[in-house]
Amino acid sequence: MDYLLNLAHRPPVVIPPDATVLQAVELMSSSRVGAVAVVAAERLVGIFTERDLMERVVLKTREASTTKVGEVMTAPVESVHPNDDPERALEQMIDHHIRHLPVTDDSDHILGMLSIRNLLQDRLEKARREAESLEAYISADGPGG
Fold first, then answer.
1. Are 46 and 125 contacting, i.e. CB atoms less than 8 angstroms apart?
2. Which domains does the chain have, with CATH numbers?
């Protein structure tokens, strides 16, 4: 069932809202991710992304070493449930112009972080398998078939 969770980055990279932007950037860099989930009391309260860094910190000339993530994160945050349809998740990302989507349970506990890259790679792999299957079907049809 948990199809989206199998595609997501797990465990998710998380940071508390009282961490500094500099700490978040260091964590994003060392984890090689473009977004971190902001978690308080074990619940997802926001997301901090590369876009937040550029628009809410750099362009506003805020100091990364003193600005708290909770001051510049995106909240409320869009999320999906592990059992949601991958096509629906992709549409949600496109409709809201976002590249990262937390996967949460019914209590807003974050289980993983889905990127648009995860969904597009999955879609590409499905298309490849379908093409190979069609090619095998056509190739198996012998003379007179």
1. no
2. 3-139 (3.10.580.10)
pTM for the model stands at: 0.84
Q: Can you give the length of the chain in residues? A: 145
Q: Which long-range contacts (CB under 8 A, 24 or more apart) does 17-20 make?
A: 17/45, 17/46, 17/68, 17/69, 17/70, 17/73, 18/68, 18/69, 18/70, 19/68, 19/69, 20/64, 20/65, 20/66, 20/67, 20/68, 20/69
Please give the distance of CA 130 from its chain centroid, rounded to a whole number. 26
Per-residue pLDDT tens over the stretch 28-49: 999 999 999 999 999 999 999 9
Burial class, 5, CB count within 10 angstroms (exposed 0-12 / middle 13-18 / buried 19+): middle
What does the pLDDT average to over 112-124?
92
Residue linked to tokens 């910190």: 57
CA distance 59 to 37: 22
Average pLDDT value over all residues in the chain: 92
